[in-house]
């Protein structure tokens, strides 16, 4: 009798979940990938490797398809011609798409988010204009120099950790105006790393599954770091760290192949500013500005190419009114998804998409923010990434010293200028054995 009661209870719960979270598809809705378990749908398969899942689904289901996972309907658009509707259509909404994730990861209530987001977005965009960003560059350089010197002149470790540590200390002080001693910085770094690693899943899971992420939030969010500060800090570092890593690794790897040696030399010889930066004394602090970057177009192309290759897996909008795409009608409530990662691997817009080719960015006008067609890493429409200029500067600065070391190695065999560089460059920076641990 007890077993019958248990089975009936489980059966009732499954039906309830299906009625609560299941949605009736529109007659012209896109093909749907679900599962036999209500609510969970294809969550298990999709969660193992989302990007691989998207790649396999497109040729099978077409350019527009829906994935049911963990109570959500995720509708992916993969054709470049549909991207404009994704970014500009009045039938989709950015705020509604991210509100739940903001609540789950930063404990910001729904009411507070909708009330403050427009004002916060306006303020952040205003503070990250070229004029204001250039004012921050000197401070960022000073902070970064100090923490780079604390690492010593030699050693080994994971490249990702080096970048994370150096950037975190600088950004905490600049964004939150809250300097940390080395001991507290290391403790904060450990907590923030856990928070960062759990961010992707924590932003999507229901509250009852968020105990681990909640502990990380509690450890980080004290009276000096309010919830918005935490979210802003994460936004400042989330993409800058992996893109910086990719930028440095490419500049190190290309020198191993003779056919790519010219990439390093072009990047470094693009302007005399870099030579001036290299020819400094040990006691001096290096200060660079966004103006310096404007005079080094090839370095900027390298950064943009690294961003292209390390673009986020997906960006989202919420469908608020029936949306027509191709021959389909996407129902309200669906999460409209676009994958910059795969968009940037479309050979129609990026020939040899897996190759690191900075020269492809010669066709863009980066000074006027005219990017290559098909590039969507910064979003589009009225909700573009407000910190894209700041990100460019951080990636350029973090990658400066490792790339400078690469230049020194190349010029040592090619140019008498190496003799001058060898006498004036702090060798500790060039010979530090920081590397990415192989997995």
Describe the 3D structure:
One of its GO terms (molecular function) is heme binding. The chain crosses the membrane at residues 6-22. This is Cytochrome P450, family 39, subfamily A, polypeptide 1. It comes from Cyprinus carpio carpio. Its cofactor is heme. Helix content is 56%, strand content 8%. The N and C termini lie far apart (53 Å). It has 20 helices and ten strands. It has 439 residues and is α/β, with parallel strands linked by helices. It is globular and about 70 Å long. A six-stranded mixed sheet has the order 1-2-3-9-6-4. It has a two-stranded parallel sheet with strand order 5-10. Strands 7-8 form a two-stranded antiparallel ribbon. The chain has two domains: 19-110 and 317-338, no CATH class; 128-178 and 224-311 and 344-431, Cytochrome p450 (Orthogonal Bundle), CATH 1.10.630. The chain has helices at residues 2-21, 43-48, 50-61, 83-88, 94-106, 110-127, 130-149, 159-176, 182-202, 211-220, 227-237, 240-253, 261-269, 272-278, 290-294, 297-309, 340-343, 388-414, 417-424, 427-431, and strands spanning 32-33, 64-69, 72-77, 92-93, 156-157, 315-319, 323-325, 328-330, 335-338, 433-434.
Q: Fraction of residues in helices?
A: 55-70%
Spans of at least 5 consecutive residues whose pLDDT stays below 50 are: 208-225, 254-261, 268-283, 401-439
Strand content: 5-15%
What is the mean predicted local confidence, pLDDT? 70
List keywords for this structure.
2 domains; Cytochrome p450; transmembrane helix; disordered C terminus; two-stranded parallel ribbon; six-stranded mixed sheet; alpha/beta; Cyt_P450; heme binding; globular
